[in-house]
Amino acid sequence: MRGLSTGMPACNVPSNATVVSIIIRDFIHLTERVSAANLASLMASYYEKVGAQVEQQQGVLTSISNHGMLVTFFDEPGADNHARRALRCALAIALIAYQTRFLIRQAFPEQGFDHFGVGVGIHTGELVFAEFSHRTDGQRIICGHAVSIASLLSVKSRDLDWNVVCSEQTLAAVGSGILTRRRGTLGADWLKEPVHVAEVVVVREVEAGDKLDATLKLDRGARSGIYRAFDPATFESGTDEEAGLPIVPGYRCLKPVGRGGMSSVFLAERLSDKALMALKFADSSVSEDSDVLYRFVEEYGLLEQVRHPHVLQIYDQGVTDDALFIVMEYLPGGTLKQRIGKNGMPGADAWRVLREIVHALAEVHERGIIHRDIKPENIMLRDDDSAVLGDFGVARRMHEVRMDGHLDAVVATPYFMSPEQALGVAEDDRTDIYSMGAVFYNMLTGRKPYTGNTLESIVQQHLRAETPRLQAEYQHWQPLLDAMMAKDKSQRYSAKQLMAHMESLPVLQ
User: Are residues 348 and 404 located together in one domain of the fold?
Assistant: First the structure.
């Protein structure tokens, strides 16, 4: 985490900045029910993850206590404005608290902890740093109305029952790309005027109509960063007008064929041989989010290592004057989600898709890559009905997968996430096997393995509920499904083990 002497203006010089105040709710209950050693370990883990977020968003830790902290965000050369970075950090911290709640319940089930949560207040205004010293030791403290307002908002978050309480003043400083849920007005005896506030849930443009299986939506608060695979069915055929289509040297864009949370995909013709390709363009909003931009570039770096008949083929990456794009295989057969529909698929077809994707995962894992977002939308079909694993936008190299507090520490669609993803703990290749088991169940039944009205209710089932039961005609596959969806990842197959086991089973329809 950045020190107090880094990134700060000179003492007694007013500076415009955004202050984030974070308090841990009901902290006294933790101190009463957990030993000092266990509490120290728990809080060290929590603050390590929070500290990683603060550093990632170029914030400055300005004060910390056993149950709260103040973080200040100033303008930084080449970075987003301080209000936008502060808001991203706040949402990430709300998610870390959500993860920590599950870890506490798991570690101390007998204590009956109902909640572990934080209240986050954000306000933008003028600040001054003051310095005081005692003999040779010097300290700097942050002063100003913005500190008092941010602290007030974090305290009032409990009464509002919001995770992130943001002043309208900060929202104005952030600009576009903000999704809010509720609004209100807060007052205090010492305030001359009430503070207008909003509950912020996403710091990025989102499409209307997003559903639970497109973005992780928490019961209270939310996060962005999970993106749908492109789905040809979501776009109507393009017009015969080329106006507005991207211009890329060597290609002729024909029509839009899909759109995700951070990209747009166009059908294009490669001029050298008239072959049809898919061009995936990073949206302009990606440039506002360095993490998302990294994932877009990293997707090419990961996929160019893999050459397998059931993994989406990547041919090129390029940059135009105003766009970053990836050239990839065009798959007109649509997605597995479309094929499953509401009624599922014939058993023979589901078995074939499972076998093809498991073979693909064995190759991907051999290259040291974890997909981390296996779901029907990310499995596409060729004209011959063969299955192709795509959308590696949140994949990671295995040696990089660690619980480092970054915003993408939890990635997955809730219906298909593994227990370790739900808890935000270390993942490995068997994470993909669990998700593929959930997809297999979806293929056979047309139903998702676990459902609920909130993320928490779905997550709880992934953590504790029995593996869903297949219908009578598919009972011969129940042991296989049980092994793929074992709660303890050490009890699951690896992709290679699963391949070998599947080959040993009789061909049953």
Answer: yes
